[in-house]
Recover the amino acids of this structure.
């Protein structure tokens, strides 16, 4: 078996959604009207905290695929003013969201217990306005949402090899700005965080044999496995990883933007930033390199994501351990590509219909467990009842 990223074809049913004349799709997808359509046609469960569980109409996988979105579309009409990461969510909402995450991951692992047969992952990708608004591929729904996905490894193994220079695969390893120029300081910054459940992994020790990914990213094993997702401390540490990443990213690009910029006022770990970043020659040398290129290369400067962009996931590795990793989402697109899986979606109503009954049966079971845990109420659609 050749170790290389795979490109898998995922059929979907064409969506009967009309974009108003004169609007681009990504403009419409940010609207309250579109989110209402998502609820009515694909919604599974919602709760007073504003969390919506829904079936992915344009999915990554037809084995198992669902998302939770923090639906602020009617409360915050400015798409650029909506929460787009865990750290921006009110504590009571985040507590409910963490419990929903735990139950869905538990359900996936229970249904797909063999790490040799299925790839299981859950996580979030930032949805900030981190791309220039005129660029293709700007995130379509600027609201925080999580992905829960299972892939059949036999199907992945039989899939065509992805091109190694696919732009969506280049936000890790040798292609990443962080990894190529600041590897040591990046890892050292994370190593000083207060982690007890999350244990740092050696570089690239948790790559999937099938794809060779993730590449060059800091990773942590969840000591104790899936049962630790029931512990408040685990989710606190999951947030610490994100907070550390945000401090690193924001501090770096503040130095790119302004030479010798003062330390940002709202950091999570200001002492570590001051001691480990703003006095580190590799860190500041790399900021100068990027700044100089921005000044002389208009195309490069336009492509910079000045605000934090990331993917943070939990995935099951080949040994059956649960691993947390986080990526500087400098170029890459879908969250699956962090693990070397490129998804090519193709409209094929018949192929989707063949997979749909089993998929919906699983999603309704997840919904039942969430309702039982008092995490929301069911939504009725044309395809399923509210209970």
């Amino acid at each position: 078996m050749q170790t290389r990223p795979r490109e898998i074809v995922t059929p979907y049913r064409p969506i009967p959604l009309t974009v108003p004349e004169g609007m681009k799709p990504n403009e419409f997808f940010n609207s309250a009207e579109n989110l209402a359509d998502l609820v009515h046609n694909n919604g599974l469960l919602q709760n007073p905290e504003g969390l919506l569980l829904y079936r992915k109409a344009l999915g990554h996988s037809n084995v198992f695929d669902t998302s939770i979105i923090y639906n602020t579309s009617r409360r915050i009409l400015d798409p650029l003013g909506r929460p787009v990461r865990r750290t921006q969510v009110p504590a009571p909402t985040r507590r409910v969201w963490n419990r929903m995450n735990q139950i869905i991951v538990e359900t996936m692992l229970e249904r797909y217990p063999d790490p040799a047969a299925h790839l299981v992952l859950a996580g979030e990708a930032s949805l900030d306005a981190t791309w220039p608004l005129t660029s293709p591929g700007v995130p379509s729904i600027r609201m925080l949402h999580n992905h829960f996905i299972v892939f059949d490894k036999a199907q992945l193994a039989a899939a065509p090899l992805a091109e190694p220079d696919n732009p969506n695969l280049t936000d890790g390893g040798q292609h990443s700005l962080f990894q190529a120029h600041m590897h040591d300081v990046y890892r050292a910054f994370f190593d000083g965080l207060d982690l007890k459940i999350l244990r740092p992994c050696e570089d690239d020790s948790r790559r999937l044999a099938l794809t060779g990914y993730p590449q060059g990213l800091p990773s942590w094993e969840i000591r104790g496995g899936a049962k630790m997702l029931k512990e408040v401390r685990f989710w606190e540490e999951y947030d610490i990883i994100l907070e550390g990443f945000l401090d690193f990213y924001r501090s770096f690009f503040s130095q790119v933007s302004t030479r010798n910029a003062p330390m940002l006022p709202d950091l999570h770990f200001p002492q570590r930033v001051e001691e480990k970043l703003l006095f580190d020659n590799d860190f500041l040398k790399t900021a100068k390199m990027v700044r100089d290129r921005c000044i002389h290369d208009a195309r490069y400067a336009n492509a910079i994501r000045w605000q934090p962009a990331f993917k943070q996931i939990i995935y099951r590795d080949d040994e059956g351990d649960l691993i947390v990793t986080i990526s500087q989402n400098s170029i890459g697109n879908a969250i699956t590509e962090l693990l070397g899986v490129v998804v090519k979606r193709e409209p094929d109503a018949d192929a989707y219909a063949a997979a749909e009954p089993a998929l919906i049966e699983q999603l309704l079971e997840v919904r039942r467990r969430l309702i039982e845990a008092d995490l929301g109420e069911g939504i009725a659609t044309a395809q399923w009842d509210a209970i």
Q: What stands out?
A: The longest helix spans residues 232-257. The radius of gyration is 21 Å. The first strand starts at residue 6 and ends at 12. The chain is about 35% helix and 20% strand.
